[in-house]
């Protein structure tokens, strides 16, 4: 499955930048992928990274300013022959013009069609996590304003080593004011700490952090700022964050 393994989300509906989101993608390093672009002709305006095996995405955005990223839950690494690819889930969410509408629509899904997942869906007006447990309907949770971190368990779960190590560090860092992302890129690049707590996972038995992304949505009434989607096509700290053109086009073969 294509997935991100860590999402940091700062949701502040009354601020100049109501949505700031960062994500590191951890994956089998040999799995083919393409950087963010408009890879899906049947979903005009959707831009995201393309998984070369299943055709889905780990993180994408649409023209309405909705962002969606999928993470696996603990104990569910890898595909299953009788389940659909979890990389479909962000694309299903991005068929909707608002995060709230996407969360409501996907709440009616049968989560047993996929292996367990966390799906983050957010825009400038709302932030949600849908937790699929491999059966029944996904559990939908609206995230309150503030800083949140999602990995392979519940959001802000301080029993998760990665969240316990890094959520306080992001909380102590001044909020970015794009285009200045402040201390966030350095935190995303941190490969220190024991492996379960590492945010930037070094190559380990063919697995590791393969890319990173930063997204920023300004308040709807601002005319002096535009949405930003930045992508590092290697582990953070090893490649610069480059702006994804909006709308992006599929690179020529």
Fourth-level CATH superfamily: Penicillin V Acylase, Chain A
Report strand order across the widest sheet: 3-4-5-6-7-8-9
Task: Note the main sheet.
Answer: 7 strands, antiparallel
Total individual domains:
1
User: How many E strands?
Assistant: 13
Fold-level CATH name: Penicillin V Acylase, Chain A
Helix content: 10-25%
Q: How many angstroms does the end-to-end distance come to? A: 23 Å
Radius of gyration: 16 Å
CATH architecture type: 4-Layer Sandwich
The CATH class turns out to be: Alpha Beta
Q: With helices defined by DSSP (H or I, 4 residues minimum), what is the helix count? A: 4
| Category by helix and strand content | alpha+beta
| Global outline | globular
Give the integer mean of the pLDDT values.
91
Task: Describe the structure concisely.
The protein has 253 residues and is α+β, with helices and mostly antiparallel strands.
Topology:
Elements (H helix, E strand, L loop, with lengths): L5 E6 L7 E10 L4 E5 L9 E5 L7 E3 L5 E6 L15 H6 L5 H8 L10 E7 L2 E7 L6 E4 L3 E5 L10 H12 L11 H5 L18 E11 L10 E5 L9 E2 L10
Antiparallel strand pairs: 1-2, 1-10, 2-11, 3-4, 4-5, 5-6, 6-7, 7-8, 8-9, 11-12, 12-13
Task: Describe the overall structure.
- This protein has 253 residues and is of the alpha+beta class.
- The chain has a single domain, classed as 4-Layer Sandwich (Penicillin V Acylase, Chain A).
- It is 12% helix and 30% strand.
- It contains 4 helices and 13 strands.
- The chain has helices spanning 88-93, 99-106, 161-172, 184-188; strands at residues 6-11, 19-28, 33-37, 47-51, 59-61, 67-72, 117-123, 126-132, 139-142, 146-150, 207-217, 228-232, 242-243.
- The strands form 2 sheets. Strands 3-4-5-6-7-8-9 form a 7-stranded antiparallel β-sheet.
- A hairpin with a 2-residue loop joins strand 7 (117-123) and strand 8.
- The model has no long low-confidence stretch (mean pLDDT 91).
């Amino acid at each position: 499955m294509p997935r991100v393994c860590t999402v940091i989300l700062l949701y502040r509906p009354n601020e100049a930048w109501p949505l700031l989101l960062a994500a590191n993608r951890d994956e089998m390093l040999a799995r083919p992928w393409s950087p963010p672009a408009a890879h899906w002709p049947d979903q005009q305006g959707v831009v995201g990274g393309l998984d070369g095996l299943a055709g889905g995405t780990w993180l994408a955005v649409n023209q309405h300013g909705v962002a969606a990223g999928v993470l696996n839950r603990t104990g569910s690494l890898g595909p299953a022959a009788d389940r659909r690819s979890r990389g479909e889930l962000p694309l299903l969410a991005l068929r909707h013009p608002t995060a709230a509408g996407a969360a409501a629509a996907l709440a009616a899904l049968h989560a047993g069609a996929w292996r367990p997942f966390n799906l983050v869906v957010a825009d400038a007006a709302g932030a949600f996590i849908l937790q699929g447990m491999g059966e029944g309907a996904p559990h939908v949770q609206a995230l309150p304003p503030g800083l949140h971190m999602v990995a392979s368990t519940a959001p802000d779960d301080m029993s998760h080593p990665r969240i316990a190590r890094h959520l306080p560090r992001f909380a102590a860092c001044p909020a970015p004011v794009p285009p200045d992302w402040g201390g966030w890129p350095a935190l995303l690049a941190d490969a220190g700490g024991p492996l379960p707590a590492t945010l930037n996972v070094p190559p380990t038995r063919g697995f590791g952090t393969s890319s990173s992304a930063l997204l920023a949505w300004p308040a709807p009434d601002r005319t002096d700022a535009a949405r930003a989607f930045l992508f590092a096509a290697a582990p953070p700290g090893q490649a610069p964050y480059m702006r994804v053109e909006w709308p992006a086009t599929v690179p020529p073969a």
